[in-house]
Amino acid sequence: MATNITWHPGLSHTERTSFLHQPGLTIWLTGLSASGKSTIAIALEQHLLHNAYVAYRLDGDNIRFGLNKDLGFSPQDRVENIRRIGEVAKLFADSGTVAITSFISPYKADRDLARKLHDEAGLRFVEVHVDVPLSVAEERDPKGLYKKAREGVIKDFTGVSAGAPYEVPEKPEVYIDNSTGTVEDGVAKIVDYLVAEGVLKFPKPVA
Description:
Blueprint: H1 13-20, E1 25-30, H2 37-50, E2 55-59, H3 60-65, H4 75-94, E3 98-102, H5 108-120, E4 124-131, H6 134-140, H7 145-150, E5 174-177, H8 183-196
Parallel strand pairs: 1-3, 1-4, 2-3, 4-5
Helix pairs in contact: 2-8, 4-5
């Protein structure tokens, strides 16, 4: 770690959220590949933006095209992938943005670290488990990834490879059974939780 750097404080989180009339937080969607995380995240982002909330979605595939393009899918690279995302999401949340992440994030320790980063900064972290049985995820398989994993083309594939388990969240703030529900159902569960917790209000306060 570099030692010749200095942290420069700017506006406080409270000042930013006061100007924006909204809280900054991270909504962390986790689940198997093809569970529907990205689809729900896109719809949630649109819903919040249409209701005047500043929101931004960080998606697993998109991040790997840029910030994390140097990482593969080994256990070590998966850990670093989620560590970086946790740091970026924290910055978005601190800015007063509703950060929405959709990553498999298979390891409990990595999700716990992302939560700890937010807790230490006084920021809210909402874990959302988007759940489907493995068989349902394989049936959907829009990218053909499960098929390639079963054929041995893709190594270290979550839920299929012996060395790449998915550790199910123990106490997520929001649980979504996405095997039969609609995208709207998933978004509604997240929004209903945030409203019940007093995090968001509809319509959005303007003063």
